[in-house]
Amino acid sequence: MVKAIRISKTGGPEVMEYVDVEVGEPGPGEVRIKHHACGLNFIDVYFRTGLYPQPLPAGLGQEAAGEIISVGAGVHNFKAGDRVTYCGRPNGAYSEERLLPAALLIKLPDAISYDTAAAMTLQGLTAQYLFRQTFPLKGGETILFHAAAGGVGLIAAQWARALGVKMIGTVSTPEKAALAKAAGCTHVINYKTENFVERVKEITDGKGVPVVYDSIGKDTFIGSLDCLSPLGTMVSFGNASGAVPPFSLNELASRGSLFITRPSLPAYVATREALDAAAADLFQMVESGKIKIEINQRYALKDVAQAHIALESRNTTGSTILIP
């Protein structure tokens, strides 16, 4: 038996239980992995609260790094002893060991530790698809990125700097502003004390930005549209403040024929080739030193409720990992 986090109902952090589970042997196309570190991401909160439904009882967590213990039939690209990382469904990364499809796995370079991998795989691949695929940045653009001191935000700020992109980041405290600025934001807006729409217009001389990357959702959606220049693109990739309410398509037309997309990582890494290419891009940026992963919070797996409380209260910066 190994320890894992399970939920039998949706709700607050208290619904997560630290229990014994039986893992079993891997079936065809599966591996059994021993986790050295597990990642914490806002999507885990969505599943815990029921915003994203799943059959119950269920596990939580979509990201971890560790060592393969055994492989099932038909698994040829991985073997016992391989260092790997992964992110994505099925949920269940909050565990000491688990079974999962080998198709999710990414081989981990020796230069990247388990802790770093668990802190960056989902967030780093998110930054990769946002900047390199959803709205490919060429350099020279000025962009708006919300939650710039979060895990994705700090990676994005460094990536933007490396690309020669001026990133305007929004944050909620002076401390977070300092972190975002140090990571590479050209401009930082404290949305608690400043109107981010007015500040973006000031920074861009009234032109607006060609793209907004928004993981906040309900609270920032309309304001984000107002920051875009005509023909600009709204990338809504999260719901930290709640789901975006229904809106009229005229909201896009009246602001200059805007584009909008609601991307998700699985669609961008749906094939082995796409996953390996995105991961190689991310690993190269980290190994070169252009991106440094900030692990600013560590919790024992059994203390995951505390980690969720801190995350939902927006009291975290950078990445948070759970140690089994």
From TrEMBL:
**If you read the UniProt record, what top EC class would you report for this enzyme, in one word?**
oxidoreductase
Q: Where does the Enoyl reductase (ER) domain start and stop, copy by copy? A: 11-322
In the Enzyme Commission scheme, what number(s) does this protein have?
Answer: 1.6.5.5
Q: List GO molecular-function terms, semicolon-separated.
A: mRNA 3'-UTR AU-rich region binding; NADPH binding; quinone reductase (NADPH) activity; zinc ion binding
What cellular-component terms does GO give this entry? Answer: cytosol
The protein's superkingdom reads Bacteria
Q: Which PROSITE patterns does the entry link to?
A: QOR_ZETA_CRYSTAL (PS01162)
Record keywords, A-Z: NADP, Oxidoreductase
Does the record's keyword annotation contain Manganese? no
* Pfam family for this entry, one: ADH_N
What is the official name of this protein in its record? NADPH:quinone reductase
